[in-house]
């Protein structure tokens, strides 16, 4: 994938805090990714996805790339990282995390209050994120990809109404977040996964380790 980032793109991002790029992926790529997301969610939840609530799937849907080669190739896609690095004007880009946003026949996540992307992460500062629609119909919100081949890049200070991802049944999104070389692991109480990095040997105040958070662009 190759996109030429212009000043107009950055003006849109500055004004809206998000911008959509069309036809970044093929439908075959999206279908494959959607299938593998569900496979990992099934393995981690140790049960059928349809029996799980959105909060339960959200809890097990963090950093899916660590358990699946196909998702690793997607999440660590260097062309996608290059697009993000150029748009956000970053010389170096680390993978911060990925997060599945999934509903089944059960939908709704009322306890998930609107926050910025940055306030949802214990890795700070984030550079931005890419949002991919894996399944489900288009949504009237312009913040979501209009079709599955598209991606939306989000600014870290965009106020995200998180519940919008969980209002309709049988929807699946994948969020890929990036961080700069200056990013630190901090205590962020709004991040439900705040203590997961301790299992990798991190302590609060540490910079990202490329072994656990690969450099995707430099």
Q: Can you walk me through this structure?
A:
The structure is a single chain. This protein is of the alpha+beta class. It has five helices and eight strands. A six-stranded antiparallel sheet has the order 1-5-4-7-2-8. The longest helix is centred in the first third of the chain and has 19 residues, at 27-45. The protein is globular and about 45 Å long. The chain starts with 6 loop residues before the first helix and ends with a strand. The mean pLDDT is 95.
CA radius of gyration is 16 Å
Q: Distance N terminus to C terminus?
A: 17 Å
Low-confidence stretches: none
The arrangement of helices and strands along the chain is HEHHHHEEEEEEE
Q: Which class do the helix and strand fractions yield? A: alpha+beta
How many strands, which pairing sense, and closed or not: the largest β-sheet? 6 strands, antiparallel
Characterize the overall form: globular
Helix proportion: 10-25%
Strand content: 15-25%
The helix tally amounts to: 5
What is the spatial order of strands in the main beta sheet?
1-5-4-7-2-8
Instruction: Write down the overall mean pLDDT.
Output: 95
Oligomer: single chain
Q: How many extended strands?
A: 8
């Amino acid at each position: 994938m190759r996109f030429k980032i212009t000043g107009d793109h950055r003006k849109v991002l500055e004004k809206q805090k998000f911008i959509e790029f069309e036809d970044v992926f093929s439908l075959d790529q999206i279908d494959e990714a959607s299938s593998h997301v569900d496979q990992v969610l099934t393995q981690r939840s140790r049960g059928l996805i349809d029996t799980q609530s959105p909060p339960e799937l959200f809890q097990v849907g963090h950093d899916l790339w660590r358990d699946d080669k196909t998702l690793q190739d997607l999440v660590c896609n260097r062309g996608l990282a290059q697009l993000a690095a150029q748009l956000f004007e970053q010389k170096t880009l680390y993978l911060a995390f990925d997060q599945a946003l999934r509903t089944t026949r059960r939908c709704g996540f009322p306890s998930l209050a609107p926050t910025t992307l940055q306030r949802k992460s214990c890795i700070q500062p984030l550079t931005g994120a890419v949002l991919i629609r894996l399944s489900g119909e288009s949504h009237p919100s312009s913040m979501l990809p209009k079709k599955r081949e598209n991606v939306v890049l989000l600014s870290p200070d965009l106020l995200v109404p998180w519940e919008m991802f969980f209002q309709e049944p049988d929807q699946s999104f994948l969020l890929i977040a990036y961080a700069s070389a200056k990013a630190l692991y901090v205590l962020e109480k709004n991040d439900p996964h705040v203590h997961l990095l301790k299992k990798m040997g991190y302590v609060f105040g540490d910079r990202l380790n490329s072994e656990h958070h690969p450099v995707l662009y430099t």
